[in-house]
Design brief:
Pfam families: Ala_racemase_N, YhfX-like_C. By secondary structure, the chain is an alpha/beta fold. It contains ten helices and 19 strands. The strands form four sheets. Strands 12-13-16-15-14-17 form a six-stranded antiparallel beta barrel.
Length: about 375
């Protein structure tokens, strides 16, 4: 999905990844992250958000909650949106502060006291029982916790496993209910996804979920509340002005940090630079040419493969995989011939990923932009250092 664009816009990252694997510094099934490019991307996002009056809470799951990446991003974007309670702990440990907690995954009740003690700017509630649990835990801490109401998404734009939230028509009643609780203050609303990439149009466009969030916001305004509106996903330099025009006050950049939103695959003029590749190696040839797996993501659209052989570079096309397959290997077909390829040759790919759901390693490399690459560490898919 992103290989051709990465070769065009950040070829030094591809070469650094090949060198690291050939030297034995990294194993197959390793994502390589260009820390210089991440730093550039985070700075550009911060400047654009400030220019348009849109606050940004960055997301860490897609790069494996890596502490070096998080600390780099937090220099420009100090607040993060934690997808779940474990990500919240990883973000805090790496020096970020919590802008939002509990949006995609509600906070387990027994984790609320410890995480609310970290004073997140907002916590998202998806139903009245979770709202009451937040209120009780905050009251015990002597706090009034600002909360965002998660608005249930439109059916056509909601991903499997991410349903739930308040119906827009129920918001007035929820505001009355929250007013009777000690420990919470409704501050606004959110939903997911509010923007999504339109393949036919070649650009991000609003979804039906956005309409539902805006309807909830209108109810809040009628009740005398000027709401905070967080409008994920696909937050990037190119969409921040759109978020502002749509009435959003907050965006949540994730893939923009590594230059891997769907728009980055088709537009070479975007501000963010590609900052992530996936490295494997030829596992077998013969009747079933394959690379080792472990890091493939079901919605990643992995397609193109670059193989560094002893005699140069070879191209291949990855097979699609059925839903029931296990990510042991990924089959491929050579494009124009695989002469000279051998088991163990380096294979480089670039596709949309969510590293935190893989079993991959993550290698963080600084100095690529200055042509002096330095491996700063190797981590597991959840951010723990392994080398």
């Amino acid at each position: 999905m992103f290989l051709a664009m990465t070769e065009r816009r950040n070829p030094a990252l591809v070469e650094a990844a090949i060198d690291l694997h050939r030297s034995g510094a990294i194993e197959p099934d390793t994502y390589v992250i260009d820390l210089d490019a991440v730093d550039h991307n985070a700075a550009a996002l911060a400047a654009t958000g400030a220019r348009h009056g849109v606050e940004l809470w960055f997301v860490a799951k897609q790069y494996g909650r890596n502490p070096l990446v998080t600390s780099t991003v937090a220099q420009h974007l100090p607040l993060a949106a934690a997808i779940d309670h474990r990500e919240a702990a990883a973000l805090i440990g790496a020096g970020a502060r919590l802008g939002n907690l509990g949006h995609l995954v509600q906070v387990p009740r027994r984790r609320l006291p410890g995480l609310l003690a970290e004073r997140p700017a907002y916590v998202t509630a998806a139903d009245e029982q979770n709202l009451a649990a937040i209120a009780a835990a905050a009251h015990e801490l002597g706090r009034v916790q600002p909360v965002l109401l998660k608005i249930r998404g439109a059916a056509e734009s909601t991903f499997p496993g991410q349903d739930g939230g308040f119906e827009p028509g129920d918001v007035a009643g929820v505001l009355d209910y929250a007013a009777r609780l000690d420990g919470v203050r409704v501050a606004g609303a959110t939903g997911f996804p509010c923007l999504s990439f339109d393949v036919d149009a070649g650009r991000p466009r609003p979804t039906g979920t956005l309409d539902r969030v805006l309807a909830a916001a209108a109810t809040m305004r009628a009740a005398g509340l000027e709401p905070v509106l967080s409008l994920p996903s696909h937050t990037s330099v190119s969409t921040i002005p759109q978020i502002q025009r749509l009435g959003g006050t907050v965006g949540e950049p994730g893939h923009a940090l590594t230059g891997t939103t769907p728009e980055h695959a088709v537009d070479a003029g975007l501000t963010e630079r590609p900052a992530l590749v996936y490295v494997s190696e030829i596992a077998q040839l013969g009747s079933a040419p394959s690379v080792f797996g472990g890091g493939f993501y079901s919605r990643g659209r992995a397609r193109d493969l670059l193989v560094a052989t002893g005699g140069g570079r070879r191209r291949a096309t990855l097979h699609d995989t059925p839903a029931g397959s296990i990510d042991y290997y990924r089959r491929f077909d050579w494009t124009g011939g695989g002469d000279g390829a051998r088991v163990g040759d380096t294979a480089v790919m670039a596709f949309r990923t969510q590293i935190f759901v893989t079993r991959s390693r993550v290698a963080v490399v600084a100095g690529i932009g200055s042509e002096r690459p330095r491996l700063d560490g190797v981590f597991d898919a959840l951010g723990s250092r392994v080398a």
